[in-house]
Task: inverse folding
């Protein structure tokens, strides 16, 4: 028995009956020889960490574009916070921590530069709209490694696809990441908005903070504990209804008072059309799209340009905007 087989057996012996076991994975699109050291989910996690798309997350906005200060979140730090929360839930419920971590680390690989603003902008011009979860799947299937993709397992790809919206992940590990994503961005976006002077802790809806807690740290701890207590030994990831309702009301407050805040008007006016104009330029000048993006899965011209533009970092998009004379 090699190390991988030993670890696969440890999952069977030690994890919850509802946890995903790597030995029972639905597999990859292209068959591969198994690794002697790592389970399939561990390999997926490592492939994501070593991908170019993952490294670019450090230069992509979470909420604030080019903030004055070193402590604001980026898309990468958001990803790491989601991973930490989801892994805590997974370990507490005896779920597969490796699968959970892989999904968490890969869930935003396809996100645009400029955060929510960039996604909305690209959504306005891409035929059929733009959704970063679907783009994240394209990244791991077709864009990375010069079009070969990362060839991840079904369980990881499914968790990435269904981490947002009304999607229902196939595994409990995917569901843990889905709720952890919301816990993370609700609380750290509040933290950054307070740091940026847009709101104060006292501005938050009292009916929410009285239930969830008066600081981001307390809210995260409370939400994790609520999920664990409600989901223990169950084939689902659950929350107390009033707690879930309070969390979503806090999320609605964020969309109204932070993401669309008057204080961010300048950012919206400055960066609100960057990506759409870059996209339109490359649709009209398709021959100028780097060759590495024009060989993926016989994709349409529109999809190739979307792959290129969505993969840009904030600073690269700004440079392209200026270089192409789109001011």
Result:
């Amino acid at each position: 028995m090699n190390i991988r087989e030993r670890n696969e057996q440890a999952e069977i012996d030690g994890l919850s009956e509802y946890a995903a076991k790597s030995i029972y994975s639905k597999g990859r699109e292209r068959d591969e020889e198994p690794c002697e050291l790592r389970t399939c989910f561990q390999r997926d996690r490592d492939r994501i960490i070593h991908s170019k798309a993952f490294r670019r997350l450090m230069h992509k906005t979470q909420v604030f574009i080019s903030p004055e200060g070193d402590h604001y979140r980026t898309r990468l730090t958001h990803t790491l916070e989601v991973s930490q929360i989801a892994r805590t839930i997974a370990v507490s419920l005896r779920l597969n921590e490796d699968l959970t971590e892989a999904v968490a680390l890969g869930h935003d690989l396809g996100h645009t530069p400029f955060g929510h603003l960039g996604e909305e902008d690209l959504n306005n011009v891409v035929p059929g709209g733009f959704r970063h979860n679907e783009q994240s799947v394209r990244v791991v299937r077709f864009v990375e490694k010069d079009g070969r993709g990362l060839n991840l397992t079904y369980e990881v790809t499914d968790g990435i696809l269904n981490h947002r919206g009304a999607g229902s992940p196939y595994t409990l590990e995917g569901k843990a990441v889905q709720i952890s994503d919301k816990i993370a961005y609700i609380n750290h976006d509040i933290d950054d908005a307070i740091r940026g002077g847009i709101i104060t802790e006292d501005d938050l809806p009292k009916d929410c903070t009285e239930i969830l807690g008066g600081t981001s740290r307390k809210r995260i701890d409370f939400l994790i504990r609520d999920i664990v207590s409600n989901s223990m030994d169950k084939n689902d990831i659950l929350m107390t209804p009033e707690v879930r309702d309070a969390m979503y009301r806090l999320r609605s407050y964020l969309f109204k008072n932070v993401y669309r805040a008057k204080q961010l008007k300048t950012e919206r006016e400055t960066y609100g059309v960057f990506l759409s104009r870059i996209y339109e330029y490359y649709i009209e000048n398709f021959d100028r799209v780097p060759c590495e993006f024009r060989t993926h899965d016989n994709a349409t011209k529109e999809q190739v340009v979307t792959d290129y533009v969505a993969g840009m970092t904030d600073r690269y998009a700004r440079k392209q905007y200026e270089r192409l004379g789109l001011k």
